[in-house]
Design goal:
binds copper (II) ion, about 45% strand, Immunoglobulin-like, 1 helix, about 150 residues
Amino acid sequence: MRRAVLTTAALTGALALAGCSGSGSGSGKADLSVSSPYMPQPVSADMAAGFLTITNKGGAKDELTSITSDVAGQVTLHGTVGGAMTEKTSFAIPAHGRLVFESGGNHLMFEKLKHKPKQGQTVTVKLTFARSGPLTVEMPVKSATYNPTTGH
Ligand code: CU
């Protein structure tokens, strides 16, 4: 639990700095930040899931349009509708709202893995948006059964 809180705080600090050089934070613009990123250690050798939350403190909506990672040949965006997963080309991020990727819901799918990420490592993920500048996130790899609510 304590370790998860520290990780999130460190990441938030790094992202806040990165955000300064990118998009502005006027009221008519999206103001995006990423929190709680993690990847459960994959069971498969060529596929992994990833989760994170994107918060928009700005007064305008934006859209997540693509994700890339150094460990994967391709990262796709998946939504879950009625228990079935569907690939989507973008996800809306409402003004003063959040876009949540979480276990059992929306998720990121890392495909064509160049190596199998292991617990304790981090994976670099770059998020691209329709309007805001890109954000780079260090996504920690957790245990295969990691639950962000309990922290283990
Ligand atoms: Cu999926």
